[in-house]
Write a structure and sequence with these properties.
By secondary structure, the protein is an alpha+beta fold. The protein has helices spanning 3-10, 35-58, 63-67, 70-92, 144-150, 172-186; strands at residues 19-23, 95-99, 102-107, 113-118, 125-129, 135-139, 165-169. A four-stranded antiparallel β-sheet has the order 1-2-3-4, with helices on both faces. Helix 2 (35-58) runs antiparallel to helix 4 (70-92).
Length: 187
């Protein structure tokens, strides 16, 4: 646990709270299952826009008309590169903590956002674990449609659909066990 991470979480604690665990999501480029669809889509999109731009330039279309394609170029750039950069930046500015009372998520690209999940009233905690012991701890129960939207993190407009979670943490089972232990002690 690094000092800045632990210090940011300790500032959020009430005087009687004890920090039991602190962590952060895996850093850097991260491919997800939805990229099986989005990467080919981005290649097709960018290729189509580039071809259309070249054809318009060859036919001598005025520059003002070419400017109308700017939104399509921006969407293509976001699909191909931007979503990876935004996701990596979002995860780099995210910290997770578990105290003897609650789970804490500190995040935010532009402004700092602190989310607190009271472990006494939390009814459902789920664990998704990978073979390398990393995984995601999700708080609450989601409708399958919400789970589908959660698969596209960083996609504009999907933030409200994602349940609070500790995403891509190492030793996910250990964190899950700490949360369950706190819940049993608080019951």
């Amino acid at each position: 646990m690094s000092y800045p991470l632990e210090e940011a979480l300790r500032r959020e604690l009430a005087p009687q709270e004890k920090l039991l665990w602190a962590g952060c999501p895996r850093r850097g480029l991260r491919l997800r299952w939805c990229d099986v669809f989005l990467i080919p889509l981005s290649v097709i999109w960018c290729g189509g826009v580039a071809l259309f731009l070249v054809l318009l330039i060859l036919f001598g279309v005025p520059a003002l008309l070419l400017l109308c394609l700017a939104p399509f170029v921006l969407i293509g750039l976001y699909l191909a590169v931007g979503r990876f950069a935004i996701d990596a930046a979002r995860r780099a500015r995210t910290s997770y903590g578990v105290s003897n009372e609650r789970a804490i998520i500190i995040s935010g690209l532009v402004q700092r956002r602190t989310e607190s999940i009271d472990l006494r009233t939390l009814t459902e905690v789920s664990l998704t674990e990978r073979s390398d012991r990393s995984g995601t701890v999700t708080f609450g129960h989601a409708h399958p449609l919400i789970l589908w939207f959660a698969a596209f993190p960083g996609w504009p407009g999907t933030a409200g659909f994602v349940l609070p979670r500790f995403e891509g943490i190492s030793n996910a089972r250990e964190v899950y066990d700490i949360i369950r232990r706190v819940q049993r002690q608080r019951a």
